Amino acid sequence: MISSAQQLDALVRDGVLSPFDRQFAASMVRLAGETRPELELATALTSRAVARGHVCLSLRSIPEIVGHHLAESGPIDWPGMLSDSPMVTTRWQPHGSQPLVFAAPDRLYLARYFDHETAVAHALRRRAQARPPAADAEALASGLAVLFPDGQRDASRRAAELACTRRLLILAGGPGTGKTTTVVRLLATMMQASSPRPRSVALLAPTGKAVARLEAAVRAGEHRLHTEGLPSRALPLRSATIHRALGPRGDLALDFRHNRENPLPDDVVIVDEASMIDLALTRRLLDAVADDTTLVMLGDADQLASVEAGAVFGDICAAGRQLVGRTGTVGDCFTELTHSHRFDPSSGIGALAAAIRRGDPEAAMVVLADGDSDAVLWHPSSGPGLPRSLVEQASENYRASSSAQALRQLDAFRVLAPLRGGPRGVDAINAAIQRHLGPQPAGHPILVTRNDVTLGLFNGDIGVETEEDSRRVVYFPAAQVGQAPRRIAASRLPAYEPVFAMTVHKSQGSEFDDVAIVLPQEDTPLLTRELLYTAVTRARRRVTVVGTAATIAASIGRTVSRATGLRDRLLDATRPGPSPG
C-alpha cells in the first residue's frame, strides 16, 4: 500500500508524474473528502494517461508505470477501492459530480473523457442503425455500372453504394489507394441516385493543407469524369478545416457555433485525414452533423494517431474489420482500399512503407540498403545534426525570386524529425538551414503555432515570409481553389516559427515531392512504427532516411498502444448504452 504523500512526491521527482498530475489529484481528493493515497495515485495516473494520448488508465498498467515505488507494497485491490470511493462512479450520468468513472474490469476515466467516448460511440452506433437515405434503385444500379464497370475497384464500388444507402461511411486506405478518386465517384453516384440530390457537400480536414489537397483532388477528379464522358454533375462543394466549419466562438478550444442544436447545413460531410482527429474534436464534429446528413470519414488507420487523447479512427477501423457486413454496426458502413496506385509495392517507397507497416525491419533495411533505388536513400549517420548535403538541398529549395514561387515550392521538399529538441531535432535543423540561408526572409516557410480566429489562422497553417518595402509580410496559400493567396503583415500574426523542418506529427495531412527523415542518434520510446510509416508516406517521389540501422529497426519494432474503450463499445453493438447528455 502507499503509505504517504511523500511517495507521490517521489513519483514527481522521478518524472513519472508531472507537477500538474500531482496538483490535480490533490485537488480532486481534497474536494471529494477522500483520504486514501491510493486514490490520489489513481487520479494522478489517470491525468498522466490523458496527457500521453490515452483516453483512460488501464489498471493493469499501474505496476509497470510506478515500478519500484510500489515494490514493497502488497497487491492493491483497485476495483474494490475505486468502487467504494466517493470520487468515483461506476454508473456514469451526464453532468455527474464525481471526477472519475470506473468501467470494470480495467478502465479508469476522467469523467469528461468518459463522456466524450460515450457520445462518440453512441453517435456512431446511431448512424450505423439510422434509416437509410432515399435512393433511386434503378439510378443507383445504373450509376454504379457506369462508374465502376465490370466490378472495377470492388472496394470503391462498395463505398459508393454505402454512401448512397447509409448515413455513415468509413473509408480506410493507405497513400495512393484511391480514397479521393473514390470520393469523386461516390459523389457522382449520389448526384445521380440520391433523392433529393445533395445541395451542399462539405470537404473537411484537420489542417488547411489537407483541406486544400482534398479540394484540389476532388476538383481534378470531377474534371476527369467530365473529359472521359462519364456521368457527372457540378458538385456543390465547400471546403474548410474542421475548426473553421464548426465555427469557433472566442478562444475556448472546443466551443463551436455548430452543435446538436445548430448542425452544419450540408447534405454530405466528407472528412479527410480522420486519423488526426482526437476524441474530443470527433465528439464535437459528430454532434454537429445532422441525423439526415451523410457522413464520410477517410483516413489511414496505420498512421500516427492524434496528438491529443484518443485513437478514434484506428478504433473505428479495428471494429469495422471485425464487424464487416453485420447489419446495424460500423462494420456495415466500413470498407478498405488496399491496392496502391502511387507506389510499386515491390520497390522504392512502396516496398519500404509496406515493410514498416507489417513490422518487418529486415525487409525495410534491404530496401534502404538498395543503392539502385532512386526513390529511397539512406544516410546511416550517427553524428549530430543534418548531413551537409541535405542542408544544402533544403537551402537551395527555399531560395525563391517571388512569393508566388516560394508558395509553389512549399510542397517540393521538407525535413521531418520525430523530436523538437536535441542535435537532430526540429529546432536544431531549422537553425542550421536558417544559418545557411542568411537572415533575410526571402520566401522562407513559417508555421503558425497558435490560433487567431480574427485573422482566420490556425495552429498548423503554413505560409512564406518575405520582405516588401522594408516590411516583413507572410503569404498563405489560398483558402480555396481559384482564390488568391492571403497576404498578412508579419507583425499581425499570432505566434509562428520557421518550418524548414517540422515534426512528423505536424506533417500529417501534407505531402511533399522529397522528404528527408532525420532520426535521433539514440533510440527513444517516441520512435514507433506508426511514426516512421507516417513520415515515409509523406513523400511522393523520394525519401531519405538519416539514422542508424539499430534506430530504424527499433522504431519498426515498437507500436503505439493507446488505452481506450471505443473499439470495445463499437464491437458490443447490441448494447444501447446511455444517450449522451
Unreliable runs: 576-581
Strand percentage lies at: 15-25%
Ends apart, CA distance between termini? 37 Å
Number-wise, the strands total 20
Strand-pairing-aware structural class: alpha/beta
- General form: globular
Strand arrangement across the biggest beta sheet: 7-6-8-9-5-10
Q: Which range best describes the helical content: under 10%, 10-25%, 25-40%, 40-55%, 55-70% or over 70%?
A: 25-40%
Average predicted confidence as pLDDT: 85
List strands and helices in order, with pairings:
Layout: H1 5-13, H2 19-32, H3 37-51, E1 57-58, H4 62-66, H5 78-83, E2 88-89, E3 100-103, E4 107-110, H6 111-128, H7 137-147, H8 154-165, E5 168-173, H9 179-193, E6 201-205, H10 208-227, E7 237-241, H11 242-246, E8 268-271, H12 279-288, E9 294-299, H13 312-322, E10 334-337, H14 348-357, H15 361-369, E11 376-379, H16 388-397, H17 403-408, E12 413-417, H18 426-437, E13 444-448, E14 462-468, E15 471-476, E16 486-489, E17 496-498, E18 501-503, H19 504-507, E19 512-518, H20 529-536, E20 539-546, H21 549-557, H22 566-571
Parallel strand pairs: 2-3, 5-9, 5-10, 6-7, 6-8, 8-9, 11-20, 12-18, 12-19, 19-20
Antiparallel strand pairs: 1-4, 3-4, 13-14, 13-17, 14-15, 15-16
Helix pairs in contact: 2-3, 6-12, 7-9, 8-9, 9-10, 14-15, 14-20, 15-21, 16-18, 20-21
